[in-house]
Amino acid sequence: MLVLGVDPGSRITGYGLVEKQNNDIIYVDSGLIRSSNKTPFYKRIHKIFETMVEIMGHYHPQEMAIEDLFYAKNIQSSLKLGHARGAVLIAAVQCGIPIFEYTPLEIKKSVVGYGRADKEQVRSMVRVILRFKGDLTLDTSDALATAICHVNWSKFESV
Amino acid sequence: MLVLGVDPGSRITGYGLVEKQNNDIIYVDSGLIRSSNKTPFYKRIHKIFETMVEIMGHYHPQEMAIEDLFYAKNIQSSLKLGHARGAVLIAAVQCGIPIFEYTPLEIKKSVVGYGRADKEQVRSMVRVILRFKGDLTLDTSDALATAICHVNWSKFESV
Questions:
Q1: Nearest residue of chain A to residue B43 (CA atoms)
Q2: Does the pLDDT value for residue B72 go beyond 90?
Q3: Three-class DSSP labels, A71-95
Q4: Is A75 within 8 Å of B76 when comparing Cβ atoms?
Q5: N or C: which end of chain B has fewer CB within 10 A?
Q6: What is the Cα–Cα distance from A24 to B158, expressed in whole angstroms?
Q7: How would residue B70 be classed by pLDDT, with cut points 50, 70 and 90?
Q8: Distance from the B108 Cα atom to the nearest Cα atom in chain A, whole angstroms
Q9: Assessment of whether the complete model's pTM goes beyond 0.90
Q10: Sign of dihedral through CA atoms B146, B150, B155, B159?
């Protein structure tokens, strides 16, 4: 099973693909969708949608995992995050990929073992779980963590 | 010039089309994109995107006007509004329709003459400006007001 994890943001959206093989979780790909501050906001949002459709069309993940929607610092950042997250959801529905949502607590617990882990700890554990040797930005490791959380969750589900 | 005005919301999105003919603004069409509370959130957001693409494909408006993004009551409603507004922006970029943004103050001033008008007053003036005799919900009259604001703004621009 190939799972796409996404960490949406209006300036940087991270994505990561992992595959469940027996009891292993294998790293497949990860990356960032970035826009400069100078790009009009609506173009940034459309770029997230367009690039997500490309990634989904290229890898055909069976399922997508994403953080659920009730966490943001303030009204303005919530509005912007909402646009970015909406772009990712629309792409998934457009491509027929089922969506699974997890709270930050569930994601951190699933990867690090406790819910108050910081992003650096999440990244370290993502590298260990996936036996990944290369560089990982914090946005891609958050996206991979979300995908890992979903794989772990499905594992429990199927027991 | 045919202008599409949109008032986005995750449960109800209003839209309205008006045409500028010489010094008149003519009513063309308006309506609502509604979803029940029972519909999963991501399906509601995709429905807004899909329906907006249909409307844009049907009417081919030259320009779209929408409220700008820095106004919402709280974090949770901002997140949801952001998703809905993102869906509308993505549809417009996808259909190649230029986007123009106005503050609620600009919209109300343009239609009613002062910025603190309530929704009922906006609706009354929309009906007068468009010589519209039928029923108008508050969501469609807000969308029509946004379109009227853009037509008036363009009028000043071209003087």
A1: A93
A2: no
A3: CCCCHHHHHHHHHHHHHHHHHHHHC
A4: no
A5: C
A6: 64
A7: low
A8: 22
A9: yes
A10: positive
Yes or no, beta carbons of A42 and B78 under 8 Å apart: no
Name the architecture of domain A2-157.
Answer: 2-Layer Sandwich (3.30)
Taking CB atoms within 8 Å and a gap of at least 24, the contacts of A110-116 are: A110/A145, A110/A148, A110/A149, A110/A152, A110/A153, A111/A145, A111/A148, A111/A149
Chain A residues with CB under 8 Å of a chain B CB are: 41-43, 45-46, 49, 69-70, 72, 74-76, 78-87, 89-90, 92-94, 99
- For B101, the closest chain A residue by CA position comes to A42
Domain assignments of chain A as residue spans, ordered by start: 2-157
Nearest Cα of chain B lies from the Cα of A94 at a distance, in angstroms, of 8
The residue-averaged pLDDT of B54-74 equals 89
Supply the ipTM of this predicted assembly: 0.89
Chain B residues in contact with chain A using a Cβ-Cβ cutoff of 8 Å: 41-43, 45-46, 49, 69-70, 72, 74-76, 78-87, 89-90, 92-94, 99
Which regions of B82-151 does DSSP assign to beta strands (E)?
99-102
Q: Is the pLDDT of residue A159 over 50?
A: no
Q: What's the pLDDT score for residue B116?
A: 85
Q: Does the annotation mark B142 as catalytic? A: no
Contact B146, B67 (CB under 8 A): yes
Helices and strands, counts by H and E, chain B? 5, 5
pLDDT recorded at residue A22: 85
pLDDT at A108 over 70: yes
pLDDT in tens, B96-151: 999 999 999 999 999 998 888 899 999 999 999 999 998 999 999 999 999 999 99
